[in-house]
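so my prof wants the structure for this chain in the tokens format not the other one, which i didnt know existed until like an hour ago. anyway here's the sequence
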Amino acid sequence: MNFMSDNAAGAAPEIIAALARANDGMAASYGGDTVTARLTEKLSTFFEKEVAVFPVATGTAANALALATLTPHYGAVFCHEGSHIHVDECGAPEFYSGAKLVPLAGAQGKLTVTGLKSSLAHFNRGFVHHVQPATISITQATELGTVYTPGEVSALSQFAAHEKLALHMDGARFANALAHLKCSPAEVTWKAGLDALSFGATKNGALGAEAVIFFDPARAADISYRRKKAGHLFSKMRFLSAQIEALLDNGLWLRLASNANAMATRLSEGLQVLSGYAIVQPVQANEVFVKVPSEAAMKSLEGAGAKFYLWEPVTDGRPLIRLVCSFATSAQEVDAFIKLAKAGA
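here's what i got, hopefully its the right format
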């Protein structure tokens, strides 16, 4: 019963098979291989337009390089105060871009036009003593497991366009968001005004692969050099590309993400009826945030072998924990956790 993270799961069998196929024979290095070329074509079909694609190994690299490409080194990147780029990437976006992250509050892990307007009011454009507003970065699905609708992305992009800001999306759980929205990838990205996407694969069954995607290839003019300088131009790029290609083939990405989401829904529905348990965020993707009755109840779950993340320090005697489901999470694991919680309730 490991609900620590979707990163705790291994790789999907289809991904391992794709890596074995990519390992057959010789191939051109540094992205000059046929697998990487096919990936660009398939992602262009996936998004219904020509896109520029840059595979990297980690989500941190994808976010940092995307933001560095969109943002001048004297610029400001507006993000949610709980976002991965602000809390969990050890300053990598600032290191690679030289820009300043500006964290903002927002309910359910989301940025709003109102919050952005309020923050922008404190910046003087053209004033040499201030960093200059340049980019907005949103997370899909958010760090609280909620999902931006196409309408919400569109509202942010319209504001960004009005303020001459770029719009970036950290899509570490992009597949989980799409599985919830049941819309096309295009509808919640470039059709809604998005400029760049960090396309997540690792959390959805890949061994270790992400991609930076630009919806206007002209905006990607210098990321190739940034990627090389950052040490993320893999010599055997085909092994990254093959993982993402396998996810795209035959809708594997959606099947894997749908299982993770379904298990999270099953988990939340089983816990919310138990005395002392309270779901504190809408369950829209594959994460469940739940208050448990007491620290003793939490320790009882841990003692029985359940693994999860204590989300914030305990202040009221009732721990808030995060439970994350993955492509590999089974109904049996979920039901076993619910049974343990019920026994200790």
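also thought this was worth mentioning. The longest helix spans residues 252-271.
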